[in-house]
Amino acid sequence: MLTLYYSPNACSVASHIALEDAGAEYEARKVDFGSDQQKSAGYLEINPKARVPALVTPRGVLTETPAMLAFIAQSFPEAKLAPLDDPFAFAEMQSFNSYLCSTVHVAHAHRGRGSRWADDEASFADMRRKVPQTVTACFELIESRMLKGPWVMGDTYTVADPYLFTVAQWLEIDGVDISRFPRVIDHRSRMREMPNVKKAIAEEMAV
Amino acid sequence: MLTLYYSPNACSVASHIALEDAGAEYEARKVDFGSDQQKSAGYLEINPKARVPALVTPRGVLTETPAMLAFIAQSFPEAKLAPLDDPFAFAEMQSFNSYLCSTVHVAHAHRGRGSRWADDEASFADMRRKVPQTVTACFELIESRMLKGPWVMGDTYTVADPYLFTVAQWLEIDGVDISRFPRVIDHRSRMREMPNVKKAIAEEMAV
User: Fold this and answer.
1) What is the DSSP string of B54-69?
2) Per CATH, is A87-194 categorized as 3.30.1330.200?
3) Residues in contact with A79: Cβ distance below 8 Å, sequence separation at least 6, in sequence order
4) Angle between helices A195-206 and A12-22 (to 10 degrees)
5) Chain Cα centroid distance, residue B198
């Protein structure tokens, strides 16, 4: 049995969808950022990073979306959620996921989380102003070079797909002109119609 | 044959050391950041992200350190550089590497790369002032919770070790009081004495 700690609309929904895709037996538990539950003593015991996602497994707790996505794919090989027998293809998928977490998510985070990296209100405003530009640059690369289509890795759906879907959900809030990214938006639209995606999002919104 | 594109003292040295550890046949090529070679048309063909590292393989180019490290470990299984047959242990290692790339490296980058996320000189100075605090917070977590010892994953050396070594090399430049992190510094000292580490660094410094 696995337990996923999530916050609605956070990057945790990528792992939530992947758990559905894997057919995993799991429980999803909301961490209430509104009441700063991520900083509570109880949650810090689970994840001292005070972030989501966290995945509690019988062997211990895992954090960091790319690692969790690869873990889900490797733990449920029959679901075929990653090219597990091809180190190069697996690395391409992991490279995509690593770019989302270390560059795209970080660019997005400068909109509302400037206090992670600076102290002055003027700096936060400066960072916030630049987010449309930095996130647009990331998605130009994804649109033109990285998203093979129809799925991230080409003909086969992998755990990179729910992760791209997750960060693409933030485009409008980041002030990005989505008309520049028809392939990404087509991918997002197809993902939104998938039963596992609908189920994971409905579960997160219902609590 | 593999070709690694690196810049001295950049995060590319982690993959450089891992290639040595793997016993891989490879060539290392310096990208001269002094002359902005990473933005040249020739290099952008290899890596449109205009960053290092990039690993040219017979199947294509890989970027993003965590993906490259897992690829090296999986491609040279006899070198035993990762727990390849244990999805949970592999995920723990990947979680460590993902934290280094998405949180620790990003915190460090706010010292000299503020223009990635803001436009005003005052913001860059604000970011720079905060780096000792943010990097210290990262290494408190690594020192107390993440570095199992004597190696990152415990008794067995993995590709997480050259990556921790790489980012720990930046502590002094980031204005961090290293006396707070005796376990990390002991790890760094042991890494510095390893023949593969010495060889990779000497090769990067000789060009």
Assistant:
1) EEEETTEEEESHHHHH
2) no
3) A21, A22, A23, A73
4) 130
5) 15
Split chain B (207 residues) into runs of 10 and give each run's mean pLDDT.
96 98 98 96 96 98 98 98 98 98 98 98 98 98 98 98 98 98 98 98 93
Tokens of B4: 């690694």
Interface ipTM above 0.90: yes
**Rounded Cα gap, residues B182 and B40, in angstroms:** 41
- Whether a cis peptide bond, with omega within 30° of 0, leads into B150 is yes
Residue A104 φ/ψ, nearest 5 degrees: -70, -50
Output the pLDDT for position B80.
Answer: 98
Identify the residue among B68, B94, B140 best suited for mutation to test binding to A, counting A beta carbons within 10 A and taking the highest.
Answer: B94
Q: Does A74 touch chain B (CB under 8 A)?
A: yes
CATH 3.40.50.2300 fits A2-80+196-206, yes or no: no
pLDDT of residue B207: 80
Pairwise CA distance, residues B12 & B54, whole Å: 8
How confident is the model over A45-68, as a mean pLDDT?
98
Nearest to B98 among A101, A123, A127 (CB): A101
Ranges of CATH 1.20.1050.10 domains, chain A = 87-194
Cα(B8)–Cα(B170) distance, rounded to whole angstroms?
Answer: 12
State residue B83's pLDDT score. Answer: 98
C-alpha span between B166 and B191 (Å, rounded): 10
